[in-house]
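S1.2 Input.
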Amino acid sequence: MNPLINRQEIIRYIPQRTPIIMVDEVLTYEEAEITTNFEIREENLFILNGRMTESGLIENIAQTAAAKAGYTCHLKQVPVPLGFIGAVSKVQVHGLPPLGSRIETQVTIKNDVMGVTIVSGRSELDGELLIECEMKIIIQQD
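S1.3 Output.
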């Protein structure tokens, strides 16, 4: 499957920059959902003992949500607003991916009211669930 957004283009849609970029490609995009992938590389800041940490998995989900917002704004031809994680809840970690693996992350918008977006996120490695959580994202209003 050809990605909608490749690794070279991703910085147009997310606010993060090297060395903290945690999304390589956008695979699918729908109004309330996005799927990305990310290769776990040695230079990643969230590596411990040859595996991505829980914090890294959460950051990957947050950046997938940012990619969703960025791509939505791109399609609507409007500026991308800043968003901040207000809370992370219902975190369940089932496994930590090793160096060299490629994870797939899906974020679904559950609710979006008055500048607060609630998303559910999950990451998998070869179809095996690694993490699932919910995030409250606060969108900065002009």
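S1.4 Remarks. The first helix runs from residue 54 to 76.
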